[in-house]
Design a protein that fits this description.
alpha/beta, homotetramer, 9-stranded mixed β-sheet, 9 helices, Dihydrodipicolinate Reductase, domain 2, 17 strands, Rossmann fold, 2 domains
Chain lengths: 351, 351, 351, 351
């Protein structure tokens, strides 16, 4: 076993099997391999060429095209699933039934019913079910969370995100499930309150029914609104999020190499007079902009350390089955709203 | 009369009276003053301080706080109205009834009923009724129109615009009427086909019912979708529009000092096989980016020359009452959709 | 006389005559006209078309092609000279001899000898001699000065400026005199210490001996170095200045619409050990970036108010003949260094 | 032996030993490992921790802290040296004497004398001596070379590069040897003509004699000038190069993720009249900007394939000992010029 300089005799606490070694799987494997206390036991993929890639990097690992063979490996205690969404439920269920803790690539599954199923299975077996919503572990999003919790922004009034690029087209889910899913995870992490309804519009240019452009508005109980613009056919890559607050506002640009988060001490002030409502007296406040220094830890490294901590100390993962299900519920409800050309659909968060 | 070096004896063909000398009125006056063949006869504003500003710049002009007095000036043959939207109908109607041609600041009026009224009045009197949708006269939008007409983009698949900044809050209309109105004018100019329905969402943070953030999706008969994101509470100013086409795509960034229009020779290609629809085979095409040189004429100057041409040669203005009414119709329908939380409303373009 | 709402009977304290109404003269005239307590009495230019432009804007003013006629106007108490550099000395001398206070467009004159002459003339007549180095009055440069004086940067270690664009070619001076002059004024304003020597290189592509590209290094008594890169043949406009300090560093980008000054809490730390010099132990400090809010006053407005204050209260202008001469001395010495292909020339600042 | 799917029995043609596995060595090893026809036999580094890193990635390789042991490996036919500059000569000489082909990290050696020595040794033994000036293999620089050779730029008039960042301080060479070296390699590659003299200035803030900021001007036989600005103490990373031509101009920004090369169809035109020289008549030409699509091959991959080709087909490497020596000659001459505060030093390119 690859133990990367760990004390002789000590077995790594996180011993992963990775199912799916296409685009994201290699990142998972690399982090499991390079984080002390963690290792990769085996990799499963349907393509021999992907397995060859994995094997040439990590000659010590077991490779297979048969997920059952991977799940049968007794050394593995965490199965990481990075395959197309439509296969998540079947694979995660099999892994849980094989007694493995599970990390599923986002989104958790194709429907909230599938999610519920997985949650129940994991709970009944007392196994960890985590969802790989990596953005929650980025230094930028972590910093924004801190700022909101410290009251720096005042009351948050809106979240408005543009997440567009050319490709990568998915075959089994629309662009909301591929890109908006990141914003939904960020929203779920940043705010305690959850959206109560959603309106979405979109279009498919591909001759199938899979939307490649979509726009989503989320309504909250408080005067907070969230809007997400996703697009697989943009000539330029944009990752631009505005977070408005009554005291300060944030621009979070994930394309920026270092100054990803900018805090603007700007806002409006509404005169607090009797005639305030009718004779609106709005003035602007212009102040400094601060771009806080962000630590440079790779998000997946932080996530790996968190999973290790959960495994070692029997903790609940931050982004767990319930988180994943809340997000999938919004995705499926929004997809229904698209079919109804924007008609608002209520979000029922009762499990 | 101020004749700016025009041949002695020749009276300018465009002799303007400007009502409203606040934010935009001075730009109208300056262009009328500095364009050969045009002049300003008088300015009307409710504030004496605005009139003093006008008078100190153009000592030769007549100033008044009474719009009736301005309309009574026989020398004036075009009245330019740059006042709050709620006053457009009354002032434009009075001007037409006084026998003046009229240019109205965007949007034309507060409702499509008001617009219809103005169109009828202008037609019955054979007077020009133009709307000041200035963006239609910018070199950038003109270039985009040329590119679309030349087939450079192929079939246009989407238009997606973000137009946000801090302020300027309007007291009588929401942010759609203030900012989205520009995109609606650009869309009306760029595309022959008109939207068939609209879904919009938004929120008011001001304690009144005037939305300061709004999002609008327009559906078209063809697989074209338009989306407009407007916001008076953004810490940063953004004027960013994407126009997707089956052959090329455009990024139009109006904040850029010179390279406002970028044409990307990028796109996707869908394999044209029997199983194409089910077994989607999408590949990406990456090519050069071209930023065409744009002429530097001020849009309002081009618009002034166009109005002069209309007056001299009895032409119909490019952006006329009917244009203005189509746009107002979308704005009022979208505002209704906002009240219904995104429910799509049909757009009826029959006059 | 145009008195812009000043109390009846009170004569403006600054009554300008403007010589040269080409590119910059209109800005001077506009500020003199629009600043309370100031006015423009007359404008002189060799081109009738320029005078016509001035007259149509300000019908009350006196215009002439004869500078002598302007200087003979008794109402004028400040002559602003915005003509080619080679004419500054003759015109300024004539103005001083006519008993007028003088503001000269940058640089003050073609040589330090000419500067000395003007200084002597102004002193002997007790007249104000100011140089229009406008950058010293910009909110950005003022803020940088405050930061340096407050010790925010620690010891300033370098100033490195790139100031390039396409054109505007000057006919009588090289690109240093046209563009580097701004950095020299900023340096003179920011730092009490003055450079002791200069090395410069450059090239002329125009078939004359006027360099259109040049690079200049200034050496100071302390471990401060300044470098200036100027170019009339750049396809893009750049105004980018770095100011390094032992505690913090500044990036000043004058093209940025609002965030012109960015303060980086970054630096290096050198271990203070005996072997420090030989076994260099350098570590990096990475901290936040702050972009302070800058006021939006036009620099020329602030400069006009300063001149008004000087006239009313018999103060010395901040940017006076001596400042102008120090800068011209550097320019002429650097031009000599260019001829010697970078050979360092000593700067003698004794007057 | 690691053979990465190469045909059974076929030995890779490039079998590398890597000396120095700190910052750059891992990139060399990765490319040798992942390029068909190439492999890594062994890695040498003084630090055990670096060797452990290499071994955990590539368990099949031989590791050692003793360079002699590496050179004694008969399987190795190319030794790649990525150690501090001061050690290049000794290590490369030993490798050549052990009969190995050699690739040396830039710059080739500490002095032109050392370079000459290595060139002679390699020639006498008929071994390949290549220098790892990676920028020459980037798609951006390759594209610029093509454009220049195709005459797109007309006569090239200037090259002006800014290459600044915070750190990484070198202990044995100044910032010219660390950063300007890249521009010198690009210049050597782009232009057939070589510079005839150099003027440089700089400063050390570190309490040693190693300049951390430096500026260099290169003079050419034709009206071409090159300027390089390098700095280890900049708060921001800049990689910005302008290349001016009589027909078009290039901005090459290596920080840009995709549009690294922008070609501006801009320039000046000088009236070709008798009085042209005296009565300069310059006009500006403003045209389109084109950002050509660049292929995405990693430069080091292209370089590895080139080395493989040289080994297999007995070709001369593009960036060979003579290239390396021309660059070192400029670096040592420029360092001398710095000591003379910018005094121009002639460059003697006779070998």
């Amino acid at each position: 076993m690859n133990d990367h300089g760990k004390a002789t005799g000590a077995e790594p606490a996180l011993r992963a099997g990775v199912i799916g070694y296409g685009y994201w799987g290699p990142n998972l494997a690399r982090n499991f391999m390079e984080t002390p206390g963690c290792t990769v036991i085996g990799v499963c993929d349907q393509k021999e060429s992907n397995l060859a890639r994995a094997k040439s990097r990590y000659p010590s690992i077991f490779t297979t095209t048969d997920s059952g063979a991977l799940l049968a490996q007794p050394g593995i205690n965490l199965v990481a699933i990075s395959t197309p969404v439509s296969t998540h439920h079947k694979l995660a269920l099999a892994a849980l039934r094989a007694g493995k803790n599970v990390l599923v690539e986002k989104p958790l599954a194709s429907s909230s019913t599938e999610c519920k199923d997985l949650i129940r299975e994991a709970e009944s077996r007392n196994l960890l079910l985590a969802v790989d919503h990596t953005f929650v572990f980025t230094p930028a999003v972590r910093k924004i969370k801190q700022l909101i919790e410290a009251g720096e922004l005042g009351d948050v009034t809106y979240y408005d995100s543009t997440r567009i690029n050319l490709g990568m087209f998915q075959h089994d889910v629309n662009v909301l499930w591929d890109l908006a899913v990141h914003d939904l995870a960020i929203l779920d992490y940043l705010f305690d309150e959850k959206p109560t309804s959603v309106s979405a519009t979109g279009i498919s240019h591909l001759g199938n029914d899979i939307e490649n452009i979509a726009f989503m508005t989320l309504f909250y109980p408080t005067p907070l609104i969230a809007h997400i613009n996703v697009n697989w056919m943009s000539p330029v890559k944009v990752r631009h999020t505005l977070i408005g607050g009554s005291r300060k506002m944030i621009v979070y640009d994930d394309i920026e190499p270092t100054e990803k988060v900018k805090i603007y001490d700007k806002g409006i002030e509404i005169a607090d007079t009797v005639e305030g409502v009718y004779q609106l007296k709005v003035s602007y406040r212009l102040g400094d902009m601060l771009a806080p220094n962000l630590d440079l830890t790779e998000a997946l490294k932080a996530e790996t350390l968190h999973l290790l901590d959960c495994l070692q100390n029997h903790k609940h993962p931050l982004v767990n089955g319930k988180t994943g299900m809340r997000i999938v519920k919004i995705l499926e409800t929004a997809s229904r709203s698209i079919r109804n050309m924007g008609k608002t659909e209520r979000l029922d968060h009762t499990p």
